[in-house]
Write a structure and sequence with these properties.
Blueprint lengths: L4 E5 L2 E5 L5 H8 L1 H9 L2 E4 L5 E2 L10 E6 L12
Helix pairs in contact: 1-2
Length: 80
């Protein structure tokens, strides 16, 4: 029995313990992206492009993409 599973986050491979969730995969790939995910400034999709919860359990070979939301700065004058 393997003591790790390999998943892919933004095309990078990470090895995680079995029963790891999406949040753990993002954290292993890039802690700064995990912070954005937790703050609501990013979300995760599966290999089909469907948004999934950060608490979703993963299986070996899972493909994830972290999408950082584009937020318009409300303090910028569009006419300037």
């Amino acid at each position: 029995m393997n003591d790790t599973i390999r998943v892919f986050v933004n095309a990078g491979a990470v090895d995680l313990p079995p029963r790891a969730d999406v949040r753990a995969a993002v954290r292993a790939f890039d802690p700064a992206l995990e912070e954005k995910l937790e703050a609501g400034a990013a979300f995760v999709t599966d290999g089909r492009g469907i948004e999934i919860s950060s608490e979703s359990p993963l299986a070996a070979g899972a493909i994830l993409r972290v999408i950082v939301r584009a937020r318009r700065n409300e303090n910028v004058d569009p006419d300037a």
